[in-house]
Description:
Elements: E1 2-6, H1 18-32, E2 36-42, H2 47-64, E3 69-71, E4 78-81, H3 84-95, E5 99-102, H4 107-115, E6 121-125, E7 144-147, H5 150-160, E8 165-166, E9 184-188, H6 196-205, E10 211-214, H7 221-231, E11 237-240, H8 247-250, E12 253-258, H9 268-274, E13 280-283, H10 288-292, E14 296-299, H11 305-317, H12 319-333, H13 340-355
Amino acid sequence: xxxxxxxxxxxxxxxxxxxxxxxxxxxxxxxxxxxxxxxxxxxxxxxxxxxxxxxxxxxxxxxxxxxxxxxxxxxxxxxxxxxxxxxxxxxxxxxxxxxxxxxxxxxxxxxxxxxxxxxxxxxxxxxxxxxxxxxxxxxxxxxxxxxxxxxxxxxxxxxxxxxxxxxxxxxxxxxxxxxxxxxxxxxxxxxxxxxxxxxxxxxxxxxxxxxxxxxxxxxxxxxxxxxxxxxxxxxxxxxxxxxxxxxxxxxxxxxxxxxxxxxxxxxxxxxxxxxxxxxxxxxxxxxxxxxxxxxxxxxxxxxxxxxxxxxxxxxxxxxxxxxxxxxxxxxxxxxxxxxxxxxxxxxxxxxxxxxxxxxx
Length: 360
């Protein structure tokens, strides 16, 4: 098959996030199965990729009338544009996809542009921030959908009466599996929506426990200043920059902390950690309870901070309890519906049915 993934969000290496990582690992695995994959994404002006893409965009605009840039940074074609919905038709002509998968990032605007090409599409539903769709979801009409969790599927079914296949985020265990020194509590993506303030309060109540905060999404100036001001009073917290190889992070992690205030579509960091037997302490928001399962503990983000601290301390100090939870985390990460072969077969099946007209 020839497959095109499209999103208005920036992509690797400009932005490292769960959506970008899942899409990249899925594309690589589909390539290994003999499929042709390409991605159309948004562009930011930062970094060397932003600089090179700006130059390419100017050249392509003059030669071909479309302000987009193509590179092979990820091992497959990645097209980048300031306004990617305006570039969909052009990229479709170049890549000739049999099916288009619309990923998060103004998905309705992107989906409508994809439908206009006459190519069958699949909407990959990843979050429930309906106000960020770019347009009303119902504007798409009947459309094939894949959800990243039961939570997401239920939310779209209730809001739009949309049925969907459930395929959890694609994850390659080898990208995360590692021996760990169990030296710290790790919190990934220290932005307010991800529960930054809860994590800071837990760290303040546990001055004897080392914490690692790992950046992911770019921090705006105010959030950066707020974070650095708080960390100045927390010598037990180390702030790390975004990591391309997450094994370096999980290699020191004893407990993964995910106190998100956001209705997470799934929460892939939970599974990433559990591949190495690392238990997760997370909030009950969105799909996180699905992601954590029996491999950790979930708490209401409104729960007293003492409740969060008690769970962290029990895992940190009670060796027998930690050993049991570690085993549970490993077992949950190896459940069948997270397996690579299961994922690929489900995606291939859905794509083939959509191409054949069985799903609309």
